[in-house]
Specification:
Blueprint lengths: L10 H17 L4 H7 L4 H17 L8 H6 L5 H18 L3 H24 L1
Helix pairs in contact: 1-3, 1-5, 5-6
Length: 124
């Protein structure tokens, strides 16, 4: 039997969320080529930035100082990519966590997907 789900309250929780999510992304036939072939993400460098990003958003650590939009603006993605990204993210949250921060994480991800998708439509 699985242990009961808890909310996202620690940096270790963020690491579980990010690592589990990107395992799914890397196995996904639609998203993996964007990350691995087009963007050629160096996961050893990128994952720590993602931990900082989500720690800042959910735990208010203020450790992330980057600007994610410019790099994403160059990618050949469309609504289907954003829908899959968000679906996998929400699925990952629901598999590992429950509570107000888990809900906040899903809402933030939805907002990011919507914002990036809208910005890309304006560029094209």
């Amino acid at each position: 039997m699985s242990p009961p789900l808890t909310d996202i309250t620690t940096e270790d929780h963020i690491k579980v969320l990010v690592d589990s999510f990107y395992v799914k992304v890397n196995a996904d036939k639609l998203l993996s080529p964007i990350f691995n072939e087009v963007a050629q993400v160096d996961w050893s460098e990128h994952l720590p930035l993602l931990y900082q990003f989500w720690n800042t958003l959910l735990l208010r650590t203020n450790t992330y100082q980057g600007r994610p939009w410019p790099k994403h603006a160059l990618l050949p993605v469309n609504a289907a990519h954003f829908e899959r990204w968000l679906s996998l993210f929400k699925q990952t949250v629901d598999e590992h966590f429950t509570g107000p921060k888990a809900t906040e994480a899903k809402n933030i991800a939805a907002s990011i997907a919507d914002t990036f998708q809208n910005r890309l439509q304006l560029l094209r």
